[in-house]
Amino acid sequence: MPSTPVTPPPAPARRHTLLFWTLGALACVLAWDAGGQDLAFAQPFGSSAGFPMRDQWFFVQVLHESARRLGWLLVLLLALSVWWPRGVLRRLDASERLQMAVSALLALAVVSIAKNLSATSCPWDLAQFGGVARHVSHWALGVLDGGSGRCFPAGHASAGFAFLGGYFALRHKAPTAARWWLAGSLLAGFVLGGAQQVRGAHFMSHTLWTGWLCWTTGWLCDLAATALRPRFPAFAHTRPPAETPHAAP
Does residue 203 sit within a domain? Predict the structure, then answer.
């Protein structure tokens, strides 16, 4: 029986396009940092008395707690889909479905590690907003601001942005679904990041960096998966059989 051909790697032109968008997004994030827009963008939501929406029920219970649980549920479903795919994921091979799950987990891990190593405090910790810390750029590595730190990048926004890697796994065999997946992940990340901005938990730069880190992690996972797939052809071609329609009575 002839072996199933391995999916060819992305064309160089396509890689160059992704590199262009990745570097372009990085330039935009760096420009935001260089412009010092964080404090100005946070001031409409807070004052020296703090952030009035910090404990608002919808932002806390729905856009924070429930959204975080939903994000982890989606990661679990992606992991289960490696063996039991549903919907559009049935078009993908097992290696591509594994790529979706692994890229999400790695993106969450990258953001979490960076966050735990950061000395940057949250906006609600700053003296301008009723706290005790002073504003220090997150680029001032090792400089303590007098607050609790561990607030950069935005961990909660990663509950949406972490799924950006799914775009790379879907784009070859389900391009329309890939674009919707990309749009949904971006929307979720910015909504969750925006909610934390309103509460005073993060600056906008925190959200922007989280989005860029998750996108880059997803792209690197795609490059690694493309390189590894030819070495494991049996695993790279385990698409579930097409559903057989029931015969009419």
Answer: yes
- The burial of 215, by beta-carbon neighbours within 10 Å (0-12 exposed, 13-18 middle, 19 or more buried), is given as buried
Helix, strand, coil percentages in the chain from 3-state DSSP, rounded to 5: 65, 0, 35
pLDDT of residue 248: 40
Half-sphere exposure of 159 (CA within 13 A, CB side): 20
Residue 4, domain member (yes or no): no
Domain total in the chain = 1
Say if 140 falls within a structural domain: no
pTM above 0.85, yes or no: yes
The C-alpha angle 111, 185, 85, rounded to 5 degrees, equals 100
Q: What is the distance of C-alpha 63 from the center of its chain? A: 16
Q: Mean pLDDT in runs of 10 for the chain (249 residues)?
A: 47 78 96 93 95 97 96 96 94 94 98 95 96 92 90 96 97 95 98 97 97 98 91 65 45
Range of the domain at 163: 57-118+153-236
pLDDT value of position 142: 82
Distance CA 209, CA 195 (A): 16
Residue at token pair 């609790």: 148
pLDDT value, residue 240: 59
Whether 218 maps to a domain, the answer reads yes
- The structure tokens listed for 193 are 């990041």
